[in-house]
Amino acid sequence: MKTEQLVVSDPRLLAEFVAPGELKTFFEKRFEVPPDHIGLLMRNGQFVQSYKGAHFSMGGIVHQIKGLIGGSTSISLMIADLKTFQHFYDVVVRTKDKLDITGTVVLDLQINPEKPQNILGMMQQRRSLSKEDAALRIKSHAWERVFEAAVSRVNANEVRGNKGLQDMMQADLMKECERVAGDLGLMVRAASVTWAINEVEKQEAIRAAAERETSRLEFEFTRLKRDMEREHETTLIKIDNKVSLDKLDINNEDDLKRLVLNNEIEFNDARETGTRIAEMKVLAHEIEMLKVERLGKFEGEIQQATHDGVDLKVIHERKRLLERNTETLDREHTLKLRALEREYDRETRTLDREENRETAKYDRDYGRETRGLDRTETRDNKLQDQDDEWERRTRELNIAAKERDHGHETRKREVDVVEKEEYSRMDREREADKVALEKLKGLAGLEAEQERARLERRIKEADATHDRDMDVRKLDAQREADRLVLGAKMTPEQILATNAGLSPAVAKVLEEQAKALATDKTAQMDLMRQMVEQANRQAVRSEEQARAMFQSGMTGAVGVAAGAGGKGGGNGNPAPGEATVECPKCTRVNPAKAKFCIGCGEQLRR
Amino acid sequence: MAAVGSTPGGISPCCYQHAVTADAVFCGECGKPLLRCMAFQECGGLVGDDGCCSVCVKPQLFLDKDAVTEVKTGGVLVLPLVFYNASGVARPLFITDLWVREGDGPRRRVELPWKRLDAGGSNRVNIQTGALERQGRHGIEITFAAATNYYMREERFAFTSLLGLEVEQGGSLVINQTINTSGVGTGADTIYAPIRLETTGDAAKKAPGGKAAELALQRADAFEASSGVRGYTEGPLKGSVVGRGARIVWKGFGADGPAAGPITTQDSMLGLGRAKTVANGGENQVQLLVTDAAGAVDEQLSQAISRRHLELFIQSGRLSARVTGAAGALVGEHRHGADDALAEIGHGDVVKILPKYPEALALQVRMRAAHGFIDEITITRLPAIPEGG
Asked: Which of A45, A202, B195, B288 is 20 to 30 A from A137 in CA distance terms?
């Protein structure tokens, strides 16, 4: 048996009732509700059940008989579309900055599959319900409460791409739809608004386009400017003037041309020869222009002068005639001067030759005579000089001998005189002393005798006193020696007792000394114990090291004191007399103030 | 800014005081090892791990007056440089190489017509840049290698200076220099040395007087390692530099072997040979004698070793040796002797003391490097002397 599919008759419909004629047939018919539709079965005005994807049969003779026996029932069937459908409509809302903007609302709606029977509440008549009618039920309620409320919070240039705004509108729309049509079996699946271009956005787009255009123009300008700068910077023209500054004051194009041709202006090009050629062409063009201008000016002046009646040719001829005459006169004058000079030179040379000839002859005669005289005179002079020299030496020898004799005599006389004077002076002093001694003996002889006797007496007294002291000391020394000899054979206790027996004060002193000795030993033992413990802590195993550390610790304190006192040398070696410490590792002697051994680096103290 | 109480190179004044003592190895005040300059006899200077003696190596670089006359975009620039040796102890410097780098381009080597730079003396050289094609800032890096010599030894260092040339529109040239020495030397210093040479205007052209401007110099340690100025240029430790204070560990020398530590002798060399050690009244730091398996001395073979057979030292970031023994020595596969005394020793090299008897006595060298810096060198004696021997 063929199965008939029950769907809505028009895609624009959301739900519709199946016509009763289709159900009441003589023969049994099978119907099928596809899974995207739902069939709502109502019997005798009561909703029985909804079927999604159902398959059932109706009509036929069996049902007719059952109806005749059991009585008839009224059955109706409504088919509803379960698919989501979209609804579009335009909205015009006002933004925060008071601009009306237009948008297209897209609503995704669907019949609530949980309670599809409520869709009956939206049907005006028991026939059908279109999708547009269902959507319009929401539109009027959502306009003000959703779209106006949401868009009024943002500016016109903020609506586009505003996901938060879209989410807020969708949530509000769902909530509003639930409120309005929730009981009617309609639900909103999604909602969004597509905004049209508003005025603010248009203006911004125009401004952005203008800015882009401006940026492009600026970039183009910068690029062109940079090209010009590069051209400017890569071409370095340096003008080295080899002529004076006066020449640089160029008067006309001829000067400039000459300077160029004479290479007096050098063009030092930094990079490109082409640029230099171009510069040369520009200069040549300027020269040509100056030349043409100056020629035109000259021609104009000539024409003006001709027009004014001045014949420059006549003036020029006159001037030229005068110049020729002047040159002729100058030439004649020059020729005359040269003739006079030649005449004068000839006479001068003749006179010079004659004078030279006479002078040479005279010189020869004079020379011959002079040489003869000179030879004779030289010979005579030599003889004379030899005689003079012999006489001079003879005289000098005589004089020297005389001086020697005379000096000898003089010195002899001087010595004799001095000796005689000395002898006489000593004789005089001796006589004077004798006289003075006699006088002294005469005057103080008695007093001197008395003084001598007194001194001898004092000396004798001092000798006697000294002898007595020496005897007493000898006795004391002998007594002490005897006591020591005896003490050597005694025990310490006997000596102590003996000494104590001498005096109670001595006994007290000895007692105090004994106490102090005991105290020192106790302290020393404590110190030793501490050092041994410290050595054990530092894993110093050997007894030698412990003793060395104790020694270094004891001498270290001395070293600190010595360092504080400023003693010791500046380097590692100990200064003479400075406290030292021996390294326990390498036995090197270091200054006591050294923290480390300078031989092996061992730490001596902390 | 340098730390208070310290000198350039991070060496404390107390170290200088204790270094006066000829046989002092450590500073008695701070306990640091005294690393003397190879020319300590002349300069009395100490060095740090980088091996640079601030007394001997004191170059200065100046941009000569009248440096710029006229330049425009597309032109070239000539920088007249003046090298000056500011050493106060009459130690000459040798400028061996000069490189110029523009921007990020490759370094270009510049031939120098001179090399020696006496103390207090100066030499000039002109550097020409490439065409300044565009306006704006142009960076120029000037790097040079300076060497100081002492007898057969030589230490080389590289210094660099950065110049920023700013070509303004209209031909104005501004040279700015900003040096950041962060992490170099004693602290994070920033030195600003702006030099402004205005070429626009008639005043600058007509008044070419003025003084030479000093350019700040910075040690180019990375360049030293990469270019071979210092450190090894081949082998497994290529690009690594031996620190001057590298610890030398001696193995296989028995119980009385030399102590581990850096080279702290007055001439910054270790003497190895048949003679006794300094501690025993000799002249060497390490005594080399041929022994048999039981540790007994083979006197006949030991006689072939010279009293001072080998001298070890660190030079330009490399472990080097000078073979002074008459019998010579094999370093790797190469024999060194009187004609070829200097040898460079690398990681894994074996120094055979007697080339005729290579198995008699040898020293194997191994190095430990971290981040391109070799801080420990282990020298193992082959065959090893038993610890009890």
From this structure: A45
Residue A121 shares a structural domain with residue A154: yes
Domain encompassing residue A253: 245-307
Q: Is B344 helix (H, G, I), strand (E, B) or coil?
A: strand
Residues of B with Cβ-Cβ distance to A571 under 8 angstroms: 17-18, 20-21, 24
Residues in chain A: 606
How far is residue B86's CA from residue B60's CA, in Å, rounded to a whole number?
7
Burial (CB < 10 A; 0-12, 13-18, 19+), residue A265, is middle
Which residues in chain B are contacts of A562 at CB distance < 8 A?
none
> What pLDDT, in 10s, does the model give residues A333-374?
899 899 988 988 998 898 889 889 988 988 888 888 888 888
Task: State how far residue B23 is from chain A, nearest Cα, in angstroms.
Answer: 7
Q: Which two tokens stand for residue A75?
A: 């059955």
In whole angstroms, how far apart are CA A581 and each of A117, A528, A560, A590?
114, 18, 12, 5
Between A518 and A578, name the one with better pLDDT: A578
A83, A106, A134 - which closes a domain: A83
Of B26, B171, B259, the CB nearest to A596: B26
Other beta carbons less than 10 A from residue B61's beta carbon = 20
The reported pTM is 0.44
- Pick A328 or A68 by higher pLDDT: A328
| Residue-level pLDDT at B186 | 41
**C-alpha span between B316 and A287 (Å, rounded):** 70
Is residue A290 assigned to a domain? yes
Would you call A571 and B23 a contact, using CB atoms and an 8 Å cutoff? Answer: no
Query: For chain B, which residues lie within 8 Å of any Cβ of chain A, measuring from their own Cβ?
Result: 17-18, 20-21, 23-31, 33, 72-75, 169, 171, 259, 261
CA A68 – CA A61 distance, rounded (Å): 10
| pLDDT tens, residue by residue, A174-190 | 888 888 777 778 888 88
**DSSP string covering A570-585, please?**
SSSSPPTT--EEE-TT
Go through the domains of chain B in sequence order and give each one's CATH number.
59-227 (2.60.40.10), 241-385 (2.60.200.20)
The pLDDT value recorded for residue A489 is 59
Instruction: Provide the pairing of β-strand A13-17 with A128-130.
Output: antiparallel
Q: How many domains does chain A have?
A: 4
Q: Is A395 on the interface with B (CB under 8 A)?
A: no
Query: Residue A236: its chain B contacts at CB < 8 A?
Result: 72, 75
Nearest CB among B28, B72, B75 relative to A590 is that of B28
Asked if A275 reaches chain B (Cβ–Cβ under 8 Å), the answer is no
Q: Calculate mean pLDDT across residues A111-134.
A: 82
User: What would the mean pLDDT of A66-78 be, rounded to a whole number?
Assistant: 74
Domain boundary among A289, A307, A325: A307
At residue B244, the pLDDT reads 92
